[in-house]
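Researcher: I'm comparing several assemblies side by side, and this is the next one on my list. It has 227 residues spread over two chains. Same procedure as the others: predict the full complex and return the structure.
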Amino acid sequence: DAGITQSPRHKVTETGTPVTLRCHQTENHRYMYWYRQDPGHGLRLIHYSYGVKDTDKGEVSDGYSVSRSKTEDFLLTLESATSSQTSVYFCAISDPGLANYEQYFGPGTRLTVT
Amino acid sequence: DQQVKQNSPSLSVQEGRISILNCDYTNSMFDYFLWYKKYPAEGPTFLISISSIKDKNEDGRFTVFLNKSAKHLSLHIVPSQPGDSAVYFCAASFASGTYKYIFGTGTRLKVLA
């Protein structure tokens, strides 16, 4: 299994508060991603990174920011959490060296915004 | 606008029979496709992939077929086992070098013992 951890695994927060989710990898993979999974929508890309300090938006980036100051860590910040951001968040990693161009996913963080 | 669609939200199959999961896409520029399996409370795990230059790829009990003219791919699981019960996602990429994928909404497979 790819060495990907996400923290926290569960979080309940109130509307309007900032929240930061952390993804940590031990694989030294170049690419890192944040997705959210919601019923009826599958997995939707929020932001991704193609190197340290190199990030770009995905399809549902509004209300989210990211930072990657080290290869191994990719942080997702909800600047002011809203109830619509209640979801399961997955981090994923990938690398040009992988034969199938696949992404490896972390275990997920369940976030509830009340 | 859903570029990758899995129109069957769920599927039930008897153990030992074939499971066929379908995926349709709208953009003919997609050139690499992946299938993932997801168990509850876990992250998705990679199953099998196919490039647009092929029409079939096999890995053990799993085979993926690609029909570019129909913009359709399918995952066949033979024989199906109870441990295959999970949600299956297909994903498509515009170019294999970008490592960015668009995922379908998933199909929940239940294999009945």
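Model: For your comparison table: Chain B has one domain: 4-108.
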